[in-house]
Amino acid sequence: MADLVDSMLDLMRRLPPMHVEENVASLVAMCPDYADDLLGSVDQPLKVMTDRATGKEYLACDYNRDGESYRSPWSNEYDPPLDDGTVPSPKLRKLEITANEAFDTYREMYYEGGVSSVFLWDLDDGGFAGVVLLKKALAPGSPTEPAGSWDSIHVFEAAERGRQAHYKLTSTIMLQMVDRAAVAGGASAKEGAPPDAKRDGEINLSGSMTRQTEQDWPLQDQASHIVNTGRMIEEMEIKMRNLLQEVYFGKTRDVVFDLRSIDDLEKARRQRELQKELVGFIKR
User: Fold this and answer.
1) Whole-model pTM?
2) 22 by DSSP, 3-state: which?
3) What is the DSSP letter of 30?
4) Which residues in 104-184 belong to E strands, given as ranges?
5) By the 8 A CB rule, do 176 and 18 touch?
6) Which of 38, 49, 78, 247 stands the most exposed, by the fewest C-beta atoms within 10 Å?
7) How many whole angstroms separate alpha carbon 232 and alpha carbon 37?
8) What is the mean pLDDT of residues 138-145?
């Protein structure tokens, strides 16, 4: 029933982004028959899992999920084990291994920590698609320190056209920040409140942004796909980060300063009048 799924998605857009996991779980519990439709349409913060075979960490999302199991990019095995789980073809699996090594270097260069994962799958038309996942979380060392997480989900499709390849990239960034140092001395939660209750003076800022692009790049061999998608993802992340910093945070800063000035408003008014007088003298 498409109307029911649309209603659930419409509801998710109106609920607080920082509680997206709890809200999705509640909707799935109410409408289990539409769980796959909902999980495939709503971006959630990436989960960090550990490969039992290699001991390496990887990221879990809807793109490496099969039922209740998640495939690891390192061992190509599902956790919990799944005998008939979907895996890429041998040729694509080889490219997937190389891509994970490349983006692991990218993660270290731009994030200096965190976790990255790349998953590829074959398409019916002969091309392939994939997703590049990046996550970094800031864990507070004390109740008054800030916390946050950055989740990047880059989904792409690649179609080879002779010596060129056409790429379609959809990038989503989810950002969550909690500032608990707003009150001097660090305010504690009220007595009797649950452990995750909001503290006095605590500021929560969370949301997501999605952008799309399509580009054609030269194709020399299979490894060129990694270079081409890597260049596109790098450019997209830089653009989206600058957009977050300059537009979203900049606009928030302007609104806050309009509501409550740091400096004395009377002092600022006198400065403006003095500037006007100086301009008048210069024009004379």
Assistant:
1) 0.81
2) helix
3) H
4) 115-122, 128-138, 147-161, 164-179
5) yes
6) 247
7) 28
8) 84
How many other CB atoms are found less than 10 A from the CB of residue 158? 20
pLDDT tens across 155-177, in order?
Answer: 999 999 889 999 999 999 999 98
DSSP per-residue string spanning 199-263: PTT-EEEEEEEEEEEEEEEE-SSTTHHHHHHHHHHHHHHHHHHHHIIIIIIHHHHHHHHHHS-SS
Per the omega criterion (within 30 degrees of 0), is the bond before 73 cis?
no
Q: 231 is written with which tokens?
A: 């260049």
Q: What is the largest CA-CA distance in the chain?
A: 87
pLDDT, one tens digit per residue, over 79-102 is 999 989 999 999 999 999 999 999
How far apart, in Å, are the Cα atoms of 195 and each of 120, 143, 189? 39, 11, 8
Q: What is the mean pLDDT of the chain?
A: 88
Residue 193 pLDDT greater than 70, yes or no = no
Q: Which residue has the higher pLDDT, 51 or 125?
A: 51
